[in-house]
């Protein structure tokens, strides 16, 4: 499932898009719009290319990375935000 925020989704598989904001207590903080997601990562260099798609599982309020896919800096964040809203209303479609 695609999320902007991982709160309330413990144990679920998740995909999150965001930009590297900072390292904090050994975790990467991704930011998308006004939301922040903490990611347990394997390689910080994978996160420095603009927007990234991170897939993994939500554990202890953090996204435990299983894969990272660079998207670049020319990503339409508003369109993705609209997609998230539709996907949350119709989870069976996505």
Q: For this structure, what is the CATH homologous superfamily?
A: Nucleic acid-binding proteins
Q: Number of folding domains?
A: 1
Structural class: mainly beta
Radius of gyration: 12 Å
Using the coordinates above, name the CATH class: Mainly Beta
Main sheet: which strands, in order across? 2-3-4-6-5
The rough form would be described as globular
Task: State the order of secondary-structure elements, H for helix, E for strand.
Answer: EEEEEEH
> CATH topology, which one?
OB fold (Dihydrolipoamide Acetyltransferase, E2P)
InterPro entries: NA-bd_OB-fold
Protein name: Putative subunit RPA3 of replication protein A
Organism: Ordospora colligata OC4
Features:
single chain; 94 residues; mainly beta; OB fold (Dihydrolipoamide Acetyltransferase, E2P); 5-stranded mixed β-barrel; 1 helix; 14% helix; globular; NA-bd_OB-fold; Putative subunit RPA3 of replication protein A
């Amino acid at each position: 499932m695609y999320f902007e925020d991982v709160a309330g989704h413990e144990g679920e598989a998740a995909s999150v898009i965001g930009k590297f904001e900072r390292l904090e207590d050994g975790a990467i903080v991704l930011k998308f719009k006004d939301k922040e997601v903490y990611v347990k990562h394997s390689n910080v260099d994978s996160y420095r290319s603009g927007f990234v798609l991170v897939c993994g599982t939500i554990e202890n309020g953090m996204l435990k990375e299983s894969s990272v896919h660079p998207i670049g800096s020319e990503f339409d964040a508003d369109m993705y935000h609209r997609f998230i809203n539709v996907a949350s209303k119709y989870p069976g479609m996505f």
